[in-house]
Structure formats: C-alpha cells, structure tokens
User: Fold these one by one.
Assistant:
Number 1:
Amino acid sequence: MKTMNRTMLLCVGAFLLLCACNETTSQKEEPMKTEKNTVTAIFPKGEKGSADLFTGNAYNYGMVAPDSTYTTAVGNVYFEPGARSNWHSHPSGQILIITDGQGFHQIEGQPIETLKKGDVVTCPPNVRHWHGASPEIGMQQLYIVPNTEKGVVNWEEAVTEEQYQQ
Ligand code: MN
C-alpha cells in the first residue's frame, strides 16, 4: 500500500513537472504566434497605435521616455504585415534599427527603401517620410528620436494604397 502511494505520488509529480515545462515553452513562443509570419520579438508588443496615425495594426513599446536629461525617445514598433505609419516628420530627425522582419522606409520624393533585420536607417530633421512592414512579413523596428525638446513627431496624412504599392 505504501509503495503504491509512493508510485502514484511520483507519477503525479512527473505530470505536474511536464505541465510546468509545457507552459513555460508556450509562454515563450506566444507573442508573435498569432501573426501571419515568423517575426521574432525582443521587446513586449506594447500598445496598439491609433488608426488616425497608422494604417493597419502597429504596436508601440516605449523604453526611454524623453526627459530633460536624455532628451531622447527610444522605443520599439511592431508593424503587422501591410501596416505602416502616416506621413510624418521629426523636428530633429530619427534613427531606425530593424531587429527582425521586412519593411519599407520612404523619404518623400525618393524611392522606397526595403528594410530587413540589421538595417539602420536615418531620416533628417523635418523631412516628410513614412515607415512600415512589407505586405507579407511584419517588421520590428527600434526607433531613436533625439533632441526631443524640439518635439518628437509631427503627424500628417495616411500613406495611400497606391503610394504603398510603388
Ligand atoms: Mn519616422
């Protein structure tokens, strides 16, 4: 009887351990599993961007809030496939570092640049531009906006389907 109980206890213990392991695995893989691609996230997904500022689904995760010491905004944006920002400009420009996926960056009047993991792209001050994901694959971008005492971003109109498809 005592041996039986010990065996059962061991079985229950092993089962619980198995459950705990499975849960840890699924939690790690979960963040981008629901998307239509395999873009890997380094940072949390963050808050969904307003439909007034983005076409499609884009998520912003702020990491360094601009204050009087650093006067720099740092954060991550995840663009789902097809999602992109409106046209906009930054008073002191912007630096983008692509950490995964595939997307686009366009300065007004210039050809669309294709972006992929490891690319670094700068946009000069007060220049109209947009950035976003490719139609098929999402994009993870780190943004750095310097000299935020002059402002962070001036938002303008949406990027049309025709402009995006160029
Ligand atoms: Mn920008």
Number 2:
Amino acid sequence: MTVQRDDVIAWIQAFTAAITENKGYLTQLDSDIGDGDHGTNMDRGFQAVSAKVPELADKDIGAILKTVGMTLVSTVGGASGPLYGTFFLQAGSATTGKLELSLADWVAALQAGVDGVIMRGKASPGDKTMIDALTPALQTLKESASKGSGFAVALRASADACEQGMLATIPLVARKGRASYLGERSAGHQDPGATSSHLLLRAAAQVWANQEG
Ligand code: ADP
Ligand code: MG
C-alpha cells in the first residue's frame, strides 16, 4: 500500500469533517482547562483549508501539506494555529516533490511534524499537550515500521497509541499553554489539543487503511 495525493486530500477532508463533528466537544474540553475556543479555532482553520482544496489536486504531497500549514498559520489565532501550522509545514518539507508516500515516507513526515511542534512549543512529554498524543503515535509508527509491519497495520497501531496518549493526559498537571495557569486544577481533564491530534491520526488510519468505525 502507498498513499497517493488524492488520499492525502481525502485525509485532510476526513479530519475537517471530524473537527466539525467534534467542534462542541473540543470546545467543552477547552472550557474545562482553557478558554473554550479549541473547537472553533480548529474549525475556522480547516474551513479555510477546505476552501483551498480545489487548488490542491495537481500539487505534490509536500506542496499540499505546506498549503494546509500556511492556511492554518494565517487563519487560526491561539496556540493551536501556529502549532498545527508548523506540524503541516514541516511534514510538507519532509515530503517535498513526492507524488506518493510509503510507510517510510510517512514516518519521516510525522517525525518532521512532531519535531516542528516541539521546536515551536517547547513542550515535553508529560506537559499535558498534543505532544502527549503525538509522541507515542510516532514512536509506535516507527516500531511498527522497523518490525516490518505493513502500512495499514502500522497506521492503526499508531492511531491506537495516539488514543492511549490522549487518555493519559487526563491525570496530568498542565505545564504548557493556558491550561498551565490552572496548575493542579488542570488534573482530571483530557487535553483538548491531544484530543484533536488523535482525531488527526485516527482519520489517517480510517482513510488510508480502511479502518472500520
Ligand atoms: P489557546 O490555548 O491559545 O486557546 P487552543 O485552545 O486552540 O489555543 O489550543 C489549546 C491546545 O494547544 C492545548 O490543549 C494543547 O494541546 C496545545 N498547546 C498549547 N500550548 C502548547 C505548547 N507549548 N506545545 C504543544 N502544544 C500546546
Ligand atoms: Mg483555547
């Protein structure tokens, strides 16, 4: 299995639909420990991305991902705009000129995206951010690839690890972003950015690996 350009666009569209569907939920999570705008921030950004989809079809995968990143940076205020923007810009740089992705290419893209988020936001694992979902997803993807798993199996394992990482943010005390202002009171709530990151990688597994449900 390889991922083609139109699969990349289908992933972005599936994630956009997941964000729209979960807008209220993400905003509720952010109301508990932040300022209650994560759902609307993400939805605003991906509605702007949606409007650009017609221009994406003839671009290479790197250019598609960079367009997504630039659109997010320019339309989303708040922490998540620059962070997701950087994720897509860096993943796009790692896939410059590519018309399809192998598992190794996707490992490189996810690695570049996660490194970009860490460089930009300076979060470490355990700080209760999207990094707590993305890091185990990347780790598991790499392990699956080095074990010789197929692309589809690796994508599902990566999305499952992302979900576990998202759930593991619940007991954590936030050390980055607005939630850190709450100190100990941030414990007991799931991080909104980790939740949207899980939707992102679950959408990749569902669309690219025909995952059920
Ligand atoms: P804001 O915090 O500006 O209101 P959002 O509500 O859209 O922005 O996004 C909040 C999410 O951003 C958090 O749940 C967290 O996952 C993520 N986040 C915040 N700061 C950082 C950071 N420094 N590094 C990584 N992720 C971060
Ligand atoms: Mg917020």
